[in-house]
Amino acid sequence: MKxxxxxxxxxxxxxxxxxxxxxxxxxxxxxxxxxxxxxxxxGSFSQKIEAFKEQKNSILIFSLIxxxxxxxxxxxxxFNEGLSQIKDKAPLILLPVVLLTTNSIxxxxxxxxxxxxxxxxxxxxxxxxxxxxxxxxxxxxxxFVYSEFAILLNKHTTYYSLFCVISVNYLIxxxxxxxxxxxxxxFFSILFLLLVIYMLSSRMAILCxxxxxxxxxxxxxxxxxxxxxxxxxVLSATIGTLFFSSNYVSRFExxxxxxxxxxxxxxxxxxxxxxxxxLDNKSIILGKGTGDGKNNLFKQYKLNKFEAGFKNKYNxxxxxxxxxxxxxxxxxxxxxxxxxxxxxxxxxxxxxxxILCILIxxxxxxxxxxxxxxxxILITSLIVSFVYSHNKNKLSENLSLKRE
Length: 404
Hints:
By secondary structure, the chain is mainly alpha-helical. The protein has helices at 2-19, 25-40, 45-54, 56-72, 79-88, 91-100, 112-137, 146-153, 157-178, 183-200, 203-220, 225-243, 246-251, 264-277, 283-286, 293-303, 307-312, 319-348, 352-367, 374-403, and strands at 255-257, 260-262.
């Protein structure tokens, strides 16, 4: 019975990773429900209480975002919207609690689930390209660029690009350190993911790829400095070519607000400037309240004559600012603690995959509000939970061996 419950839990967890890149959110939601149900049957209730006590400090840190959002309900003017935000962000504490209070995941096998995630990301990307080819052959339009291609994936370009980057990170990690997958398979998988990123036209994804390339090259070729700089030079030239290719240029064509021409860079600045203009000395610490941040931002867009932002209800396009708007510096510190706790453990244990995953999330949070959609919330909570638990367990094992 015990083995069956563990197998059921592992199966449910694998489903969460496999269904995350899938076009329909309902599949992933069902997988999460299945995971929680399976967790209830793994071990006894007393074992869960004991595990919770052992992990109480880390769980408290991972709970800070939800606690801060609950606190924000006390002074919000939009209580229903605040409740909706808390409900949407519940996985940020639910998944860490589930994963930190179960011992069914085999030690050293935590990152195996990211292999399933990478395979799933590739498979759904293949399906989208096949659809684009069929539609193109039938004369129904060009679906190989940016938002049109995202329609076939049924995911926002930001999040599927992030999925591709995390997958590339895992595949390189597997190639250099795990070494359980064919090099040829990894090579062609990475090439395909780069193609998908190119079609989605995400500049932040390109910057994240550059970060990954420099990091692994530095780690793997430290004995030959000439190779380091040569490879970095070639990669930089290649990525720079992609960055300014016609596909990316067409993605980032200027938009207009009345008669004023606004570039993509200026648009981000308008987002951020408008956000900061809504804050005053009273709200900088606790924010405007959970649920109120966005409404104040939309009003500021209108005052700044940023009509596209006002009409389309654009968010702040920066997760750090997003939390500051609604919950002030308290919300900002909570989110940074959420990211930096697993990063500290990853650095202590020289976990290159984990370090890069957290840095990628931190980098993407600068230009995107990645926790405003289910895809971003789930990938963030899964990465944070696994990176932390993987390295905390390794550290505990090392300390136990030293005592012996």
